[in-house]
């Protein structure tokens, strides 16, 4: 497998530090509000990366943090007349609800910044002792110029960074690019004791401390949105390598932005779209499909029509798996035919080639569509063996479901319950004279191979 390393700007063969054991850290959300679709892209894509690594036989230790204290949390808590802790817990729960809906599996560890203050203080003390950091009136700053290679991730010199960065004027700093490791507490502000007085950690130090605790001094993969490249990840590298004297990360991966039409999504433009709101309008699975439908390093444009198309594609996936199961009821007994096994092997090779080429989920999805087409062709044959149908179903379950999280191969009882629920919804829609919705449900069931019969005794259904 080859991945594009942001630090070297090259495609590189992926080789973990310790054979088949992979350490992976993805920067999690700052939990002062609901996450938006741009946030979700990183969490969802790297969920697939982890799934694929496991498929390839790696043991993955995956860490994703929560930033549960910073200026935005403090400000939001004050506005809502609540505590920072209560606000953070509320939005951590909201985050999990959004991610569960999108099929994102939980990380092995979800550390919170506020639960790792001791580790951060230890790291800051070490940096001061080594001359990489200094204290000024209760604040502690990292000396950016103390690292000659500062800027190596964003590929900018100190002068370029100074001219391009919006650096807050601060007389306490020796250099405008120096960044806070510890912030002196303001009156009535959440704080912790430290050798420099009451205060709280800076943003960047938390990831260095938590990744080191759970994954060690050197990580195999560190990832997040490209907006984190500078200053967050740049500062992580500087402070971590100054702290330990070792290489911090072997492979840096950054995903592109989600645009709203032709515009970049941003708070200043007022076009930020939250996942919690999108889930009320669209199928969560369609949102997952959308976020995986473009190569992760490229920007992706959100639109209503795009998501509707994703929903239609998913219906085709579902119809394919349903038809495979129903065709098995009339298929001949026997193991999979050699030509079917050969075709599935070809699809496997194509899928792996896509994912091994810098984790190209867009091309992997194209392979899923080829597999679905093959499924439709196979079930329409006059004579087919049960083993062939089962093999195709297993392939879709593994690659479309276990890895991509886009194909849900349900058990028969689950399917029956869903059909009954849709029929009940259709009856309610008809009673409310919402004939458009009633017809849409009938069309959906027809696409799944379900025939409805309206009888004096009620609605009956059968499979084609």
UniProtKB/TrEMBL annotation:
<feature type="binding site">
    <location>
        <position position="232"/>
    </location>
    <ligand>
        <name>Zn(2+)</name>
    </ligand>
</feature>
<dbReference type="GO" id="GO:0004817">
    <property type="term" value="F:cysteine-tRNA ligase activity"/>
</dbReference>
<keyword id="KW-0862">Zinc</keyword>
<dbReference type="InterPro" id="IPR009080">
    <property type="entry name" value="tRNAsynth_Ia_anticodon-bd"/>
</dbReference>
<dbReference type="GO" id="GO:0005829">
    <property type="term" value="C:cytosol"/>
</dbReference>
<dbReference type="InterPro" id="IPR015803">
    <property type="entry name" value="Cys-tRNA-ligase"/>
</dbReference>
<dbReference type="InterPro" id="IPR024909">
    <property type="entry name" value="Cys-tRNA/MSH_ligase"/>
</dbReference>
<feature type="binding site">
    <location>
        <position position="207"/>
    </location>
    <ligand>
        <name>Zn(2+)</name>
    </ligand>
</feature>
<feature type="short sequence motif" description="'HIGH' region">
    <location>
        <begin position="29"/>
        <end position="39"/>
    </location>
</feature>
<feature type="coiled-coil region">
    <location>
        <begin position="300"/>
        <end position="327"/>
    </location>
</feature>
<dbReference type="GO" id="GO:0008270">
    <property type="term" value="F:zinc ion binding"/>
</dbReference>
<dbReference type="Pfam" id="PF09190">
    <property type="entry name" value="DALR_2"/>
</dbReference>
<keyword id="KW-0030">Aminoacyl-tRNA synthetase</keyword>
<dbReference type="InterPro" id="IPR014729">
    <property type="entry name" value="Rossmann-like_a/b/a_fold"/>
</dbReference>
<dbReference type="InterPro" id="IPR032678">
    <property type="entry name" value="tRNA-synt_1_cat_dom"/>
</dbReference>
<comment type="similarity">
    <text>Belongs to the class-I aminoacyl-tRNA synthetase family.</text>
</comment>
<protein>
    <recommendedName>
        <fullName>Cysteine--tRNA ligase</fullName>
        <ecNumber>6.1.1.16</ecNumber>
    </recommendedName>
</protein>
<feature type="short sequence motif" description="'KMSKS' region">
    <location>
        <begin position="264"/>
        <end position="268"/>
    </location>
</feature>
<keyword id="KW-0436">Ligase</keyword>
<keyword id="KW-0648">Protein biosynthesis</keyword>
<feature type="binding site">
    <location>
        <position position="27"/>
    </location>
    <ligand>
        <name>Zn(2+)</name>
    </ligand>
</feature>
<feature type="coiled-coil region">
    <location>
        <begin position="412"/>
        <end position="439"/>
    </location>
</feature>
<feature type="domain" description="Cysteinyl-tRNA synthetase class Ia DALR">
    <location>
        <begin position="350"/>
        <end position="415"/>
    </location>
</feature>
<dbReference type="Pfam" id="PF23493">
    <property type="entry name" value="CysS_C"/>
</dbReference>
<dbReference type="GO" id="GO:0006423">
    <property type="term" value="P:cysteinyl-tRNA aminoacylation"/>
</dbReference>
<keyword id="KW-0175">Coiled coil</keyword>
<keyword id="KW-0547">Nucleotide-binding</keyword>
<keyword id="KW-0479">Metal-binding</keyword>
<keyword id="KW-0067">ATP-binding</keyword>
<dbReference type="GO" id="GO:0005524">
    <property type="term" value="F:ATP binding"/>
</dbReference>
<feature type="binding site">
    <location>
        <position position="267"/>
    </location>
    <ligand>
        <name>ATP</name>
    </ligand>
</feature>
<dbReference type="InterPro" id="IPR015273">
    <property type="entry name" value="Cys-tRNA-synt_Ia_DALR"/>
</dbReference>
<dbReference type="InterPro" id="IPR056411">
    <property type="entry name" value="CysS_C"/>
</dbReference>
<keyword id="KW-0963">Cytoplasm</keyword>
<feature type="binding site">
    <location>
        <position position="236"/>
    </location>
    <ligand>
        <name>Zn(2+)</name>
    </ligand>
</feature>
<comment type="subunit">
    <text>Monomer.</text>
</comment>
<dbReference type="Pfam" id="PF01406">
    <property type="entry name" value="tRNA-synt_1e"/>
</dbReference>
């Amino acid at each position: 497998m080859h991945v594009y390393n942001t630090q070297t700007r090259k495609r590189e063969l992926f080789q973990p530090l310790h054979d088949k054991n992979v350490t992976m850290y993805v920067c999690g959300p700052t939990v002062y509000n609901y996450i938006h679709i741009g946030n979700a892209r990183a969490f969802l894509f790297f969920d697939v990366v982890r799934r694929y690594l496991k498929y390839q036989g790696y043991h993955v230790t995956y860490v994703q943090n929560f930033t549960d204290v910073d200026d935005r949390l403090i400000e939001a808590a004050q506005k809502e007349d609540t505590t920072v802790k209560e606000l953070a817990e509320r939005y951590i729960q909201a985050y999990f609800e959004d991610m569960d809906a999108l099929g994102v599996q939980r990380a092995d560890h979800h550390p919170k910044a506020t639960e790792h203050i001791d580790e951060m203080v230890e790291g800051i003390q070490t940096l001061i002792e080594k001359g990489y950091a200094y204290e000024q009136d209760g604040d502690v700053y990292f000396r950016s110029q103390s690292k000659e290679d500062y800027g190596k991730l964003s590929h900018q010199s100190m002068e370029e960074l100074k001219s391009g960065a919006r650096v807050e004027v601060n007389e306490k700093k020796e250099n405008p690019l120096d960044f806070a490791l510890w912030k002196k507490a303001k009156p009535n502000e959440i704080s912790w004791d430290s050798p420099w007085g009451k205060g709280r950690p800076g943003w960047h130090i938390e990831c260095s401390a938590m990744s080191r605790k759970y994954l060690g001094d050197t990580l195999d993969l560190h990832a997040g949105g490209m907006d984190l490249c500078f200053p967050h990840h740049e500062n992580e590298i500087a402070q971590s390598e100054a702290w330990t004297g070792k290489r911090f990360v072997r492979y840096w991966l950054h995903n592109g932005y989600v645009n709203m039409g032709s515009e970049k999504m941003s708070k200043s433009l007022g076009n930020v779209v939250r996942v919690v709101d999108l889930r009320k309008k669209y199928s969560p699975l369609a949102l997952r499909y959308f976020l995986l439908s473009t190569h992760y390093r490229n920007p992706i444009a959100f639109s209503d029509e795009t998501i509707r198309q994703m929903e239609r594609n998913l219906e085709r996936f579902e119809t394919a798996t349903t038809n495979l199961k129903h065709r098995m009821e009339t298929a001949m007994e026997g193991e999979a035919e050699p030509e079917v096994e050969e075709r599935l092997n070809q699809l496997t090779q194509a899928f792996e080639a896509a994912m091994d080429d810098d984790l190209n989920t867009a091309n992997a999805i194209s392979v899923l569509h080829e597999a679905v087409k093959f499924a439709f062709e196979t079930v329409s044959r006059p004579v087919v063996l049960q083993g062939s149908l089962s093999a195709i179903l297993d392939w879709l379950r593994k690659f479309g479901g276990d890895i991509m999280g886009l194909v849900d191969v349900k058990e028969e009882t689950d399917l029956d319950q869903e059909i009954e629920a849709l029929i009940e919804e259709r009856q309610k829609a008809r009673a409310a004279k919402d004939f458009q919705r009633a017809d849409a449900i009938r069309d959906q069931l027809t696409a799944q191979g379900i025939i409805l019969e309206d009888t004096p005794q009620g609605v009956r259904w059968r499979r084609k």
